[in-house]
Amino acid sequence: SELGLESYWALAHELLSLQGGSSSAYYLALAQTYLLKEELSKCEECLCEAVRIDCMNPNVWAQKGHLCYLKKDFGEAKECYERAMGFMEDAEDRHFVYLRLGSIYLEEKLLKEMVEAEDALSEANALNNTNAEVWAYLSLICLHGGRHTEAEQCYKYVLKVCVCATVGWAGQGSVWPGTGQSMPHYESRNHGMGLGWKGP
């Protein structure tokens, strides 16, 4: 939207003036502006400059991963997301990093990657357990691994989340409306557990 573009432009110029010159944060804000305008080549240039200035900024690596993901360069996106995961405590959009990284691992369908996909999607689910897409991917992983009961349970949560979304329920507090029941978090089998009731 125009409002979104104006906000990013304003932020970029504010960062430029406050920090006395171009910074990693400035180029990141500028890259986000170009991404909204669908000017992908300019977005990439800004992200490369942001990495050059500060190669340890997780938000830059996450944004670069998002750009590569949109361009369907999934190999490069995976590398960027994995770099971002090294700084996950400071990253702003951890949920989307985990979600997209999990989807890439799942698409590759390698045994080792399937394990990592389940771990990544479990992390995404821990951050937001009312996201139908995450539950759907987890259902596919369980199905692929022959865990049909867990696959069915995950699929049921996909349907529940979608139904609640259509009636305008935002999932506040991860409690189902009218029942008082908590929405479960998925815990990876790789940590010795499957689907379980874990508080948000």
From TrEMBL:
- Top-level taxon: Eukaryota
What SUPFAM superfamilies does the record tag this protein with? TPR-like (SSF48452)
Family matches, as SMART domains: TPR
Q: Which Pfam family, any one of them, does this sequence belong to?
A: TPR_8
Which Gene Ontology cellular component annotation is one that this UniProt entry carries?
A: extracellular exosome
User: Which keywords, in A-to-Z order, does the entry hold?
Assistant: Repeat, TPR repeat
Q: Alphabetically, which GO biological process terms does the record hold?
A: cilium assembly; cilium movement
Please name the InterPro entries in this protein's record. Answer: CFAP70 (IPR052628), TPR-like_helical_dom_sf (IPR011990), TPR_rpt (IPR019734)
User: What name does this protein carry?
Assistant: Tetratricopeptide repeat protein 37
Q: Upper lineage ranks?
A: Eukaryota, Metazoa, Chordata, Craniata, Vertebrata
